[in-house]
Amino acid sequence: MKTVGRVLAFCAVWTCALHLSNAQAVETATVGSSRSTENAILGSALELLAKSAGVDAKHQEKMGEPQDLWQALLNGELDAYVDDTGALMRERFEPERFEGIEQVEAKLAEFNVKMSKSIFYSTDAETPKEDAVVLYRVDLEERAPDVVKAFLKLEGSITESEMADMIGESDRKYLPESSVADKFVKERFPEIASLIGSSSSSSPSGGIDIEVEVDTWITRLTKHTVDHLIMVGIALAAALLISIPLGIGAARNETFGKAVLGFVGILQTIPSLALLVLMIPLVGLGKDAAILALFFYSLLPIVQNTHAGLSGIQKGVIESASALGLTSGARLRLVELPIALRSILAGVKIAAVQLIGFATLGAFIGAGGYGQPILNGIRVNRISLILEGAIPAALMALLAQGLFELVERSIVSKGLRIRAEE
To answer: Is the pLDDT of residue 20 over 50?
Structure first.
């Protein structure tokens, strides 16, 4: 009887554990969007609809181009995103091209992907205008069918003029795409408005909380500044750790020096945007690719100036240090590096200023920073948006230059500064 009792107790505990585990398990759905305002609005709408179906939804914003979203869908990084039928028929499966939607659907099925009916005629696509559609993974329909049903509510729900108005509202009033999407979803689907809840961080109605950040000029400037500083700071710090030892080695060994200077010189000749794109296959889209490209781009001025500063030291100074009995390492630390410090700092200053300008291109691969408002301004032909990124970037470059000059005055001996000025 005791054994039977223990078995029954174990079964009861196991059943309770399974029940609690199932109760706590929350299905997730990840949607994505490209850099365009239109696609970001639709991505936010998908996120809201998924949350209305009771899942933990996440929106990966401005991931790059639609082809990047397609690859993320295949890799399982995304569960759904909005594409257009023109790209699906002519570009997405190159070199294959299709004449009809039925052929596209059959091709998508090979990748376990399904497509919704038309949401509206895409204003992003070139003429003739093409249908915007939701692409979603088959396994999403299997594990969260209510989410797919919610996505399909978008079918035929937006006219082209309404989409144009939403894009204009976001661009002209500087509203976040998520805020525009929140307003649209609640007005178009009032039956799920109570499930979505309010646009603040708390929902008194008990619905799902949706955070919509109030986007002001200050908040945008702060965000872009932080993003820009992160990219430039990490890249420059890594370059210092690598470039100065390389410059020292190049000054000590002529053969090694020629090889190193030639390599970093070649890196500098690669066009900035091309170098950014080359990093994408290595680390993917976003800040990582931008930081890696910035790192490679900053090597030349630091290596070159370190090499020049050490090579320019007079032989008499080196011989005098050796005559005093200093080892090679001690001579480098106590004599050569202090003399070459002004030249090394000049290289670091050049690299920092260059990186601040170069980092604005990171927006093209979804890295953010000051390049994001510049890119948005180019897209909507608005000078104010372009200046919102260009002016802070220029000011940051001037501040960096001034900062390095102050550092030079504080750590480089006065005698060396006077000698260099003479």
So the answer is: no
Q: How many CB atoms lie within 10 A of CB 278?
A: 14
**Block residue for tokens 């710090």:** 237
Q: What is the pLDDT of residues 189-232, one digit of tens each?
A: 888 776 665 443 333 333 444 444 445 678 878 888 999 999 99
Measured distance CA(36)–CA(366) in Å, rounded: 11
> Could you please report the per-residue DSSP string of 75-108?
HTS-SEEEEEHHHHHHTTTTT---SSHHHHHHHH
Quote the CA–CA distance of 337 and 248 in Å, as a whole number. 9
Q: For residue 55, give every residue at least 6 positions away whose Cβ sits within 8 Å of its Cβ, in sequence order, or none.
A: 26, 27, 28, 29, 144, 146, 147
Distance CA 115, CA 126 (A): 21
pLDDT at residue 302 greater than cutoff 50: yes
Judge whether 203 and 209 are in contact, CB under 8 Å.
yes
| E strand or H helix at 150 | helix 145-151
> Do the beta carbons of residue 353 and residue 397 sit within 8 Å?
yes
Query: pTM for this structure?
Result: 0.60
Identify the top-confidence range among 2-16, 214-228, 251-265: 251-265
The dihedral of CA 159, 108, 282, 277: what is its sign?
A: negative
